[in-house]
Amino acid sequence: MLWWGAAHSLHPDPERGRLRVCVLDVGQGDCIVVETPSGRTMVIDGGGVNDETRPSDGADVGSRVVAPYLYARGINRVDVLVLTHPHGDHVGGLLSVLREEPIGTVLDGTVLPYPTPAYQAFLAGVKSRHLSYKHVFRGMHLDLGDGVTADVLNPPASGTPYGENPDNSTVNNYSVVLRLTYGRTHFLLMGDAEAAAEQVLLNSSSDLTADVLKTGHHGAANASGEALLARVHPRYAAISCGRHNHFGHPAPATLARLTTHGIQTFRTDQNGAVTFLSDGQTVEATPFISSVPLAAGLR
Ligand SMILES: [Zn+2]
How close is the Cα of 22 to the center of ligand 1, in Å? Predict the structure, then answer.
């Protein structure tokens, strides 16, 4: 009874004034939902399937996970929708978001021509709704209000430094990389960027430091290299990957590097969705499933 009364007295919302960044559990894929203190919303990728011959999965993760999450959070408008790159495990789930949510602006990081059914369906959805649509590249600065900003660090503003052959690795390297800032706290969201993109970031004079690193390419061995971890110096890392995925993500070598750097790491395949809350000074991490057994936590 006392607890119930105490809970009531906690109103208004204890999350008020905080930036909320949730790395959703969309299986083998990526989806991040950002909510600013006053409720502006940015959705980065939507999960999906790697089979790009189909515009959408039969058990579409967008309508099964992403849309219900937005509904549960009371989100009835997506101000900024970002597609980091056109692979099926990032674009597929955005189709239902495009269908069901009012959307402000769509930002697309796709650099090379990519004529797959999933990506073409995404472009068709944007066009049929007459949404504001822009290609996004390094140097762009987004103001989300409340002092929340995002700097685009990749893909490069000009040229094709990662090549022009749209194989998996090349397309991954052109991923949108965002550095989100709120007060003194930062989030570095790497998309599926791999070593080549990391090297371009490291060669730049950009401030890469962040409290939270959303690791590139689902924790693969060819991302989150030593030099990047040293420069970003995060307290937390989030790896978005599916249980028993066929790719072996995350790679043991990547997990070892994160451990060596003393980074507390959450994995969506083990922890479910991971929520980060920032008050502008510090970041708190809350995994949906804690790695600490409940019984131990109650002791
Ligand atoms: Zn991916």
Answer: 17
Report pLDDT digits (tens) over 164-176. Answer: 999 999 999 999 9
CA of 179 to the centre of ligand 1 (A): 19
> Is residue 220 one of the residues assigned to a domain?
yes
Range of the domain at 184: 19-288
Quote the pLDDT of residue 176: 98
272's tokens: 């479910």
Q: How far is the CA of 56 from the centre of ligand 1 (A)?
A: 15
Tokens 């009371």: give the residue.
74
Give the pLDDT confidence score for residue 11 in this predicted structure. 54
First to last CA, the chain: 21
How crowded is the C-beta side of 81, counted as CA atoms within 13 Å? 28
> How many domains are there within the chain?
1
pLDDT digits over 183-196, tens only? Answer: 999 999 999 999 99
Q: 5: CA distance to ligand 1 center in Å? A: 45
Residue 181 within a domain: yes
Query: Is residue 252 in some structural domain?
Result: yes
What CATH number does the domain containing 127 carry?
A: 3.60.15.10
Q: What's the predicted TM-score (pTM) here?
A: 0.92
